[in-house]
Design a protein that fits this description.
The protein is an alpha/beta fold and 294 residues long. It has eight helices and nine strands. Strands 1-9-6-2-5-3-4 form a seven-stranded mixed beta sheet, with helices on both faces. The chain has a two-stranded antiparallel sheet with strand order 7-8.
Length: 294
């Protein structure tokens, strides 16, 4: 009874200690938020935030997804360029892993800015994280501005149709909904590097998607995987598939005239060529793969 009495008498002290610790934690979070806002560029990317979270993504890159890279020397060491890749995975880890593939394999430690569909920014927390690490709302104007600043810009022309493929459609490259990357390349005279990504299809196997209620949430659909929403937040943890990212040889657009960017026949033809390169690269890497997990 005496011990119980001592504990009860100390409860106010424990409460004050907990409140003090919580206050300090909230204060640090607020300081970090302000620091990120202060050094963010006009698109919202924060070097401070990127440096803090990079170790987490490096763990995913090296130890969890065990990403293999092929053709990193095809990525320009300087100057603007466009990366065009297949899209998959429900959650865009393909963009962050591609970012690290370039960052880790180029001595210049170049940063990749990737274009993101609007709906991603409607998802609490995830939208802000994507923005802070370099994601930019997909638009021709934003892409052009990034290229003018000398950045590498990553584009996923399949759009939502790519990232929202059902598992039984995995690695079936969808038609390019957006061929704007060709117009960008012609207008800006920058190279296009076709990129194939193997492994992302398996991290969140999409078995069903529902459009019911999704519109009210600002989403194109609500995903159902073997783990989500059944396991709650744990269902968002990706499965540890083995990845391979291949950077194919750059496609030059210097020979084209500015007027060619306005010709749909030219744009569609060149977009189809890039798509075919990605498709062949995917088939080649899938054929070499021993299993999903190794």
């Amino acid at each position: 009874m005496k011990e119980s009495g001592n504990f009860n008498s100390n409860i106010p002290i424990y409460v004050e200690l907990a409140k003090s610790m919580a206050g300090r934690f909230i204060s640090k979070i607020e300081d970090f938020r302000r620091e990120c806002e202060n050094d963010a560029d006009r698109f919202g990317m924060s070097p401070t935030f990127l440096e803090r979270v990079r170790p987490i993504f490096q763990f995913l890159y090296h130890d969890y997804f065990r990403v293999d890279i092929c053709g990193a020397d095809n990525v320009p060491k300087k100057g603007p360029a466009i990366l065009v890749a297949n899209h998959s995975g429900t959650i865009p880890y393909d963009a962050t892993m591609s970012h690290l593939a370039v960052y880790n394999n180029l001595k210049s430690k170049r940063l990749v800015r990737f274009l993101v569909d609007d709906f991603i920014f409607n998802i609490p927390v995830l939208g802000k994280v994507i923005e802070r690490i370099g994601g930019v709302r997909a638009s021709f104007e934003n892409a052009m501005e990034l290229l003018e600043d000398g950045h590498i810009v990553m584009i996923f022309p399949e759009g939502i149709e790519g990232i929202g493929k059902l598992y039984n459609e995995r690695y079936q490259l969808q038609e390019f909904q957006r061929a704007g990357f060709v117009r960008l390349a012609i207008k800006m005279k920058v190279p296009v590097i076709p990129v194939s990504i193997v492994g992302a299809e398996e991290i969140h196997p999409l078995i069903w998607k529902s459009k019911k209620f999704a519109e009210n949430l600002g989403l194109p659909y609500i995903p159902f995987t073997p783990t989500f929403p059944w396991l709650g937040p744990l269902g968002l943890v990706p499965l540890p598939s083995k990845w391979k990212i291949t950077f194919n040889k750059p496609v030059s657009f210097k020979k084209f005239r500015a007027a060619d960017a306005r010709k749909n026949s030219v744009v569609k033809r060149e977009a189809a060529k890039v798509r075919e390169t990605i498709l062949k690269s995917l088939k080649r890497d899938l054929k070499k793969r021993k299993s999903v997990w190794e």
